[in-house]
Design brief:
Layout: H1 2-9, E1 13-22, E2 26-35, H2 40-47, E3 50-55, E4 58-64, E5 67-68, E6 73-79, E7 82-83, E8 97-105
Parallel strand pairs: 1-8
Antiparallel strand pairs: 1-2, 3-4, 4-5, 6-7, 6-8
């Protein structure tokens, strides 16, 4: 019974691979075990200095590692190689996940 309790209490984690790119401004890669079930917005905030603003659709990432999205640029979110159709707050980390944020122009 003692060992079963120990296993149940142990935090389940998944591996997050985070890549942040913006031309010649920033190229950061981090790999970390994060709590299974948290959203990618929270996980990104654990790995890199981030500023965000609240919008009607949830938080919008405005700055990563000191690089700001200004004018007609934005931090595009890719999850496992595909552009995400939802915001970082709605990407729930249930399995090992590759997240890339790239500063892009619209």
């Amino acid at each position: 019974v003692g060992s079963e309790m120990c296993i149940r209490d142990r935090l389940e984690t998944v591996q997050l691979t985070l890549v942040i790119t913006s031309a010649d401004e920033i190229n950061l890669t981090a790999v970390k075990q994060v709590e299974k079930g948290i959203d990618s917005f929270e996980a990104i905030g654990q790995l890199v200095a981030m500023e965000a603003k609240e919008t009607d659709w949830g938080p919008q990432i405005m700055s990563l590692g000191g690089v700001k999205a200004i004018g007609n640029t934005f931090w595009a979110l890719y999850v496992n190689g595909s552009m995400s159709m939802v915001g970082a707050k709605d990407v729930i980390l249930l399995t090992d996940t590759f997240v890339r944020l790239n500063l892009e122009t619209f």
